[in-house]
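Researcher: For the annotation table, I need structure tokens for EAL domain-containing protein. Please keep the output clean. Sequence:
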Amino acid sequence: MAGALKGLTDGGRPGEIREEFDLPGYRLLVSSLFSSPGSIIPGGIAGILTPYLCWLSSGMTIFMTLTIVVAVVVALRMMTVVTYRRREHADDSFAETRRWDREYFLGATVFSAVLGYSCYVALTQTDDPAAHITSVSSTIALASGYVARNAGRPKFVAVQLLTFCVPMAFGLIQAHNVYYQYIGYFAFLYVLANIAITNSLHRNLLALSDATKQSKALASALHSQNLTLDAALNTMIHGLAMYDSSLKLAVCNAPHRTLYGIPDTLALPGTPLTAIARFLIERQVISPDQVRETRRVLAEVQQSQQAASRELQTRGGRLLVVTIAPAAEGGVLMLTEDATERKATEARIEQMARFDELTGLANRFEFNNRLAEAFDRLERTGEPFALLYIDLDGFKQVNDSLGHDIGDRVLVETASRLRGAIRGGDLLARFGGDEFVLILPSASHSVVTTIAQRMIDAMGSAFQLDTKTVYVTASVGIAMAPHDAATPADLLRHADTALYKAKAAGRNTLTFFNPAMAEEALDRHEIEVDLRIACDERSLELYYQPIIDLKTQEIVTREALMRWRHPTRGMIPPGVFIPIAEQSGLIAAMGDWAIKQACKDAATWPNEVGVSVNISPLQFREPRRIVETVKDALITSNLGSHRLTLEVTESLLIEDNKATLAVIHDLRALGVKFALDDFGTGYSSLAYLSTYPFAQVKIDQSFSRDVHANEASKAIIEAVCQLARRLSMNVVVEGIETESQRIAVQLLGAHRAQGYLFGRPEPLSSITSDKGRHVA
Ligand code: C2E
Ligand code: MG
Ligand code: MG
């Protein structure tokens, strides 16, 4: 009871209240106390009337006093109720709510305590049965009203029951009437029973509130779960449909409806699969066969409880991947992926990974795979095969001079010409740039030769591209497996070596690999490595060979010829190391050095003696570089530009490159002269002589060698000399070794000559000034 009383005074422990209710719940509870002033008014009137009636009946002043006290308490309570109801309490804090709670119960408790006391006085101080009955009955009635009204606050009910009934019970027990005493004791039972009832009512109330809360929470959780599930289903990229065990639709998402074009009416739960299938067939989304197959898979999945996938090609051109998986209670889940784009992308990636974009031929990656396969087959079945390495001659020039568009078109056309020359099972691939490779399965030496020759012939005719006519030939290197190599890498290397030989043999031809080539290739590789070192260490030298004026026998020019003394191999001729330098890219630096060194050396010679420097066509690939190098060499050496001649070969001119022509003009503008070297060995187009501004033409030594015996040589020398005279050019005949050759070429009209007869190439140190300009 003490605890309950304490609860009354402090309005209940906030902890307890908080355990039972949260703040909104507490506010609701308190507002319910103030909710019906109607119940306070009759209770208040009854409360005032009880002591008043006792006063009327007994005439005792104490009752009038108690009447006034009750009236004041009732008035104060009414004021509290009115004040409470006038305000808004939605945002009341816990402390505010507790204050209202406390005020209400303070009023109620004072009310019940005063009435309880009034009843006690009526029973003990008067003998008036009317006062007794009025007091006891109104006390019991008011107490009962409290139980019913305040079941939500059992502790307060207990306190009020006690304050109402305990004075009454004591009053009854003190009376000398056994019935009164019986009722007095009974009052205690009444209090206890009512406390118990209130507690149980309270528990039920709590349980009910909990259950309501829980079911509300459950409902809201379910609702939000449904919303989430709905959103998740509909935002899935894949279509999803679930059928129950009797193949009636349980659920399907928006993508599923869209993918199959199913109307909303057929997407309702309970729709049989057969109805949907009928619709799909009628609308020609899928064929009856596809429906049958899908149903078969469905049945299989239901039976085996194992998921299965099928591809469905719709009539609208889409590719659907349908996965059917077992679901709960014998149902099935149907997941549909629109794989149209994915498959197309996969195919594109596969195509890009394996095939060359430009020509559509297999690419290097695919070729490597197929080569590995060919070796596997060779191991398993012993089937031999050939590898052909095809490289286009002169393609680089086409690309550089006519642009990449034309270059690309040449490659496309080449691919189609080569394709036309091979058999069905042969694999033609583009290896990169202008290199193609071909695997010829089970081909004999003669078949390989035939096919390779067919390809060379196919390339023989001109490429007609818009207004441009382009000639591109092919060189082919061939290696056979297992004869030439046992691994893909070796076979490729050997075919490449054979290709190199075919190129060296004058291009536009085919060459089979043989082991001697491998040694040579190895040699070349070693030479390249050593040449790089020689360049770095500046161990190259220039030798000089005189070119003489046949009339005066005086040296007019000296030709700079590069020399390389290899530490172990001895003197290596430029005919060997220059092509290697050209292929390895070393030629640019070597060429720069030769120009600068030759100018520097020539500056020490008599003014009338010039110097000739050989220039590789590859040096023209960097037009600005060669112009700058020459300028720099002339300035640094202080050599008059008219003393410098640059020797170029026809191969530079066939490219017909505008940039080359511009470089020639720029250099000529400096005062530098040009000589056409080795005339008669290449295309020997006389047209070049008139087209390009040469100061000099050098007839190749092969003509002077047989000038006596060969009428053709004679005729050519004579014709060139005549043309040169008309174009104001000098003619130098190379390779004069004998006096009779000298006389012969002089008679044919040559002005100048070069050869061992006049002097061999010698190091600078051997050219002494006292030798003067005259030769023997
Ligand atoms: P080339 O420019 O035609 O040089 C003439 C070649 O004929 C030289 O060979 C020379 O030694 C050789 N020769 C001269 N007179 C006679 C003779 O009476 N009889 C015989 N049998 N040969 C004679 P070399 O020095 O071996 O040079 C070969 C080629 O190497 C040169 O031919 C030139 O094309 C190239 N070359 C040499 N030095 C350089 C260079 O610095 N740069 C470039 N790019 N090429 C060079
Ligand atoms: Mg030369
Ligand atoms: Mg020459």
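Researcher: And a one-line annotation?
Model: The chain is about 60% helix and 15% strand.
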